[in-house]
Write a structure and sequence with these properties.
With about 70 residues, this protein is mostly beta strands. Helix content is about 0%, strand content about 55%. The chain has no helices and 3 strands. The protein has strands at about 10-25, 30-45, 60-70. Strand 1 (about 10-25) and strand 2 form a beta hairpin. It is elongated, with a radius of gyration of 19 Å. It starts with 11 loop residues before the first strand and ends with a strand.
């Protein structure tokens, strides 16, 4: 089995944004959508730790949903 360890590398430069929308089609039905975009530009890498530079978050994330109620 693989063991994953997360390091605090210090300073990092990243940018991104989140957007979301809710649409109420009727009192019983609504829809929602969210999107997140994140980009890691620069990070301090300690000596011999190049493998630790992966960002533990996806660059793009999209969520869709609906709610139906009586």
């Amino acid at each position: 089995p693989a063991v994953l360890i997360y390091y605090n590398l210090g300073e990092a430069r990243l940018h991104g944004f989140d957007v979301g929308m809710n649409f109420v089609a009727s009192p019983q039905v609504s829809f929602r959508a969210n999107a997140s975009f994140l980009k890691l530009d620069e990070v301090e890498v300690p000596a011999n730790r190049a493998e630790a530079t992966a960002l533990n978050a996806p660059e793009r994330k999209i969520t869709l949903g609906a709610t139906f109620q009586n």
